[in-house]
Each structure stands twice: as structure tokens, then as C-alpha cells.
Amino acid sequence: MLLLFLTRFFLLITLSQPQQKILIQELKTELEQTEDTARKVELYCELSKAHKSINPKTTIAYGNKAVDLAQKAGDDKLLAQAYNETGSGHYLLGDIDKAVQFYYKALRIREKLGDPSDLSASYNNIGNVYADQKNHKEALPLYKKSLSLATTAQDTLRMSSALSNIGGVYLDQGKYDLALVYYREALPIQEKLNDKQGILISLINIGDAFNGKNDYQTALSYFNRAHQIANDLGSQHDEVYVLRGKAESYLKAGKFEKALDNALASLELAKSYEGKYVIRENAAILDRIYAAMGNYEMAHYYLTLHNTYNDSLQNERAADRIAQERVKYETAQKDKENLLLRAEQELNLRKLEQRSIVQYFTVALLLLVCAVAYVFFRGRQHQSRINKLLTQKNELIMHKNQALNQHQKALTEQAQQLNIQKEKLTQLNTIKDKLFSVIAHDLRGPLVALKGLLHVMAMGKVPADKQEGLFNSLVKGQQNVLWMLDNLFDWARAQMEGFEADPKPLPLRELVDENIRLLQPVASSKEVVLDNRIDPSLTGCADKEMIRLVLRNLISNGIKFCKAGDTVTLSARLQGDHVLVLVKDTGIGMTQEVQQKLFGGGSFSSRGTANEKGSGLGLALCKDFVEHNGGAIWVESAPGMGSTFMFTLPCSVKNEEKEDDTPPTPEKEEKAAEQLQLA
């Protein structure tokens, strides 16, 4: 695992890059104008500090100037500060020997002066050196002493540095939960101080801790936040750590190409300012990435690079690491044939599994086709009966024409019956044409898509990492086709045979919960939240099956036009002798022109936010069912503001005191409470 120890030593609240450039220019201008020696030392120290996140070499240059001038002025406090800033520059470049020399020079002076805040900074910096050498036994007491001194001085900035560095020790020891405790204690302090540099480093450290816990998704979220701050600050040094952390996350996730891109970018930035430590660590992760990809030559190259820089920092470990990598490379070459055989065996097993899955889905598809064929057969059978009846009536009319004068009254009555039957036949033909149109266009499309997915899988051309997504697409497509068939059958039955409502007391919340459980997988796939706010004691009086279909269509419609992060909220309230039910979504909304088409006589459908398509019958069926239960349905919406579908149902028990004698009217729901995301 990559270790990131904080590079904050004695930093004031960091400004954004444009402000920092302005500050640097102001410091240079004042330096040219001032004649006060002590003030010049302070300005050189400030310039050294301001360049830490930009160029550590410049930090060293200004630090050396501050040291020379402070020695001439004989000011011990300023001299200690100059030593500290110069040591920080050497540490950032990975020159540990020089960094230690300057840190101890600053510490000896500060121990004489006795300032707890300055002593806290020195103990923190020396602790970093021990931590860099993996000497946790020495580093941890120094960090804790730094924290104690900073607490005594009430220096919150140095407190956050010490807390973060203590977390770094536990991170390196693999105690990730304990490390997170200290990091999360430091982060609020840095945010309160608006310490951008501190916030950035805490986010990187938290990301590394989650990498250690193998929670790479959470780790990536912290690294992405850190990356944005690093770009805002223009800190190449910190961006090196961010990119390396992201590379570690992608490596754990098995996304080797992304891991490689981030690791190479981190290495290039590290080379730009010749940071020995960060170049060494980047070479190490590139070794691991290439090894995971099976490119052992490149892995050996970066391991060699890692050991080259490690020689200058820890010479005694370089030869053993190179020898180990060579053995690993040679062993991998010898085992290559065995690995290929194992891979081929696994591939054959996966093909067998795929064939079994294809067989299951083929059976399901055949059953679906049989159901559709049955619908066609019933429709044709019904049409044949009607045509036969019409033929019989025509023959009867022809026979009775011979007695037209004697039976004029009877013939008139028969003609009226014939007209009625003709109207019914015309209506049924219209329904039949519409039914065939929906099946031909809206139902055939999803079935063809399902067939195409099954064909691709049957050919065995689907990579293993793509199979789960295709399976989810198959399940989702199958569910959409089933819901479309339900709507289609209910609509056809209502149009052909008529229907009657069977109103009974209806527990609304329970019915909504049933539909939410049914639609939750679809909502989860689009990252849409379903929220049931209906009072359990609230009941209406309606046909349960009809209202179940109404709720399912309205909730499904809300999910269809929502994006990731949106919410579909269901609520209800008493309004006079009716119950008003509201299905509100925070989706894309609709224009007034679209609203006028929703509940018209014809079918109307538009594609959802994920390109979903419906039959156009759902809302028309909702209108029929609500009205047959003695209620009304309408919609309120605006583009970009979401939509609220409302319908009323009679109360099962009328209230003694009615809130309003007038018919129910649309009302706007209260705005949902804002959801806060915790880091």
C-alpha cells in the first residue's frame, strides 16, 4: 500500500492560486521597498512558505536567503523560522538528510525560546522524518507531543496537522479505522479555518485509508474532491499524491488502464520538480500495475526505477527488491503456459454457464410469444364471431324483404338493431386496429431488443465484465414488456367487455407500499428515490385492483421521467368527502401542450430520461378507472420543475366536520426537506 504522510509543517491558511500569486507579488514588492532587516527576514520566510505547494526548489532558495539575513541580524526566533522553512523545502524534494539538519537547528533554538506553538511545528516536522523511515515507534510520540503543545497554545492549525499525521502513522500500520478517527477529527478544524491545503491533504489521507479497507469507490470520491482543490491551488506536489491515490483505487477495482493513466501522470508531475520520495513511490505503484496487467518487462523497469531512488534514501533494501522482481519475472515466464491453460478452462466453464442462461431466457421468450399469439388468436376469433353474426342478420333481412309491406314496423326495428351492431362492430374494429398497432410497434420493439441481446450472448461474444450489465438490461426489458402487456390487456378488456368497479374500503399506504416493492428495482437502476408519506390510517373507497393499476402507472411514469438523484413522493390528505392522492416527482417536467394530450381520447407517449418508451395507454386507463370509482384525475407540471399527478377517491367514512364543501382542487405539496450528503 502507498503511504502518504502529510507535507504540512508550518503553513498558514492557503489561498487559491490567483490570490497566492497576488500575495507573492505583494511580498516581492514590499521586499524591494523595505530597509528593515528583520522585516526582510520575515518576507523571505513568507515567500518560502508561499512556494511550498508550487515549487519546493524556490522554497529552499528563499529559505537560504532568510537564514543568511537572520544570522546577520542576530534574531534567534526568525533564524529558527528560516531553518524550519528551508528544511521543509528539502523534505518536499526527498532530501531527508538536509531536511533533518535544518529541523534540528530550528528545534534547538526554539527549545531555548520556549514558544509552544513553534515547538509544536518542529516536533511535527521531525516526526515526519521518522515516519518516512517507517520508524513509527519514534514518530508517534513526537506527533502526540506536537498535538499537546498546539493544544496548549490553542493553535488550531497545528492541531489539525498533528491529528492528521497521527492518523498517517496508523494508516501505515494498517489500522485504517483508527486512522480515519484522527483524519475526521482534523478535517472539520481545517474546514473551519478554510485551510485549503490542510483540507486537500486530509481528503487524500482519508482516500488512502479507504483504499486500505478495499473500499475503492469511497476512496475515489475523496480523491476526486481532493483533485479539484489541488487544481484550484495549482499545487503540482499535492496533485502527485491525488493521482497516485486514484491509481491505487483503480488498481484495486481491476480497472488497470485508468490506474496506469493516473500513475503515469503522477510520475510526470513528480519528475517536473525532482521529488525523490514521490518518484520512488510512483515507480512502485507502476510496478504493481504492470505486474497485474501481465506486462512483467515494464513492471521490472519501474521496479528498477523505484530501487534506484530508494538507494539514495534507503540503500540497504535496493538489491534485494530488484532480485525479488527478477525472480518473479522469470517465474511468471515459466508459469505462462499453465496460466493460459487455466484461463482456457475457465472460459469453457463460463461458456457452459452462458448457454444455460440463454436456454432459460429462450424458454421465457417462447412463453411470452405464446401469450402474444393467444391475444392475436382471441382477437381474430372475436372478429370472426361478429362477422358471422353480421352475415346472419343480412340473410334475415333479405328473406324479410319479400314481406316488406306487411312487416314494415318489424323491419324498422331490425334495421335499428343492425345499426347498433354496426356501430359496435366499427368500435371493435377500431379497438382491434389500435391493439394491433400497439403490439406491432411498442411491444415488438422491446422483444426484438431482447432477441438481439440473447443472440449476442448465445454466440459467446460477451466479455465476463459486461455480462452483469446485459443481464440487468434483459431483466429490465422483460419487466417493461410485462407491464406493457398488463396495461394492454386491461385496456383491451375494458374497451371490449366493459368493466364495473367494486368499491370497498381501501388502505392507501399499504397499496402504495406494494407498488413501491414492485417498482423498487427499476427505481434503483435509475438511482431514483421512492418515498411513501401516506398516513397509514387514511383510507378511501374504491376498487382495489383498479387503484393498484392507477398507482403503478403513475409511480412508473414518475420514475420514467426522473434522472439520477430525483425523488418520487406519494402523499394523500382528506379534502371534504374525498381523499386527494398526489404522486409528485422532481423530474424533467412537461409543457402545457403535452399536459393537454395526456388524458385525451387517443394514446400519447414520449420517451423517458433513459430512453424508455411506453404504450401510451397507461394514463388513459388511469383516467377511466379513477372516473369509474367516482373520482377525478389531473396533472400540474412545468419544464424542469417536475410533475404532480393528482386524483381523488371517495372517503370510506365521511368526516363529521368537512374541511370544504367544494369539489377538490389541485394544491401544491410542501417542498420536501433537503437531503444532506455526509462525507
From TrEMBL:
<dbReference type="InterPro" id="IPR036097">
    <property type="entry name" value="HisK_dim/P_sf"/>
</dbReference>
<keyword id="KW-0812">Transmembrane</keyword>
<dbReference type="Pfam" id="PF13424">
    <property type="entry name" value="TPR_12"/>
</dbReference>
<feature type="region of interest" description="Disordered">
    <location>
        <begin position="654"/>
        <end position="679"/>
    </location>
</feature>
<dbReference type="InterPro" id="IPR004358">
    <property type="entry name" value="Sig_transdc_His_kin-like_C"/>
</dbReference>
<keyword id="KW-0597">Phosphoprotein</keyword>
<feature type="repeat" description="TPR">
    <location>
        <begin position="160"/>
        <end position="193"/>
    </location>
</feature>
<dbReference type="GO" id="GO:0005886">
    <property type="term" value="C:plasma membrane"/>
</dbReference>
<feature type="repeat" description="TPR">
    <location>
        <begin position="120"/>
        <end position="153"/>
    </location>
</feature>
<keyword id="KW-1133">Transmembrane helix</keyword>
<keyword id="KW-0808">Transferase</keyword>
<keyword id="KW-0472">Membrane</keyword>
<keyword id="KW-0175">Coiled coil</keyword>
<dbReference type="InterPro" id="IPR003661">
    <property type="entry name" value="HisK_dim/P_dom"/>
</dbReference>
<dbReference type="InterPro" id="IPR019734">
    <property type="entry name" value="TPR_rpt"/>
</dbReference>
<dbReference type="InterPro" id="IPR011990">
    <property type="entry name" value="TPR-like_helical_dom_sf"/>
</dbReference>
<dbReference type="GO" id="GO:0000155">
    <property type="term" value="F:phosphorelay sensor kinase activity"/>
</dbReference>
<dbReference type="InterPro" id="IPR003594">
    <property type="entry name" value="HATPase_dom"/>
</dbReference>
<dbReference type="GO" id="GO:0009927">
    <property type="term" value="F:histidine phosphotransfer kinase activity"/>
</dbReference>
<dbReference type="InterPro" id="IPR036890">
    <property type="entry name" value="HATPase_C_sf"/>
</dbReference>
<feature type="coiled-coil region">
    <location>
        <begin position="315"/>
        <end position="349"/>
    </location>
</feature>
<dbReference type="InterPro" id="IPR005467">
    <property type="entry name" value="His_kinase_dom"/>
</dbReference>
<feature type="transmembrane region" description="Helical">
    <location>
        <begin position="357"/>
        <end position="377"/>
    </location>
</feature>
<protein>
    <recommendedName>
        <fullName>histidine kinase</fullName>
        <ecNumber>2.7.13.3</ecNumber>
    </recommendedName>
</protein>
<keyword id="KW-0418">Kinase</keyword>
<dbReference type="Pfam" id="PF13181">
    <property type="entry name" value="TPR_8"/>
</dbReference>
<feature type="repeat" description="TPR">
    <location>
        <begin position="80"/>
        <end position="113"/>
    </location>
</feature>
<feature type="domain" description="Histidine kinase">
    <location>
        <begin position="438"/>
        <end position="653"/>
    </location>
</feature>
<keyword id="KW-0802">TPR repeat</keyword>
<feature type="coiled-coil region">
    <location>
        <begin position="401"/>
        <end position="428"/>
    </location>
</feature>
<dbReference type="Pfam" id="PF02518">
    <property type="entry name" value="HATPase_c"/>
</dbReference>
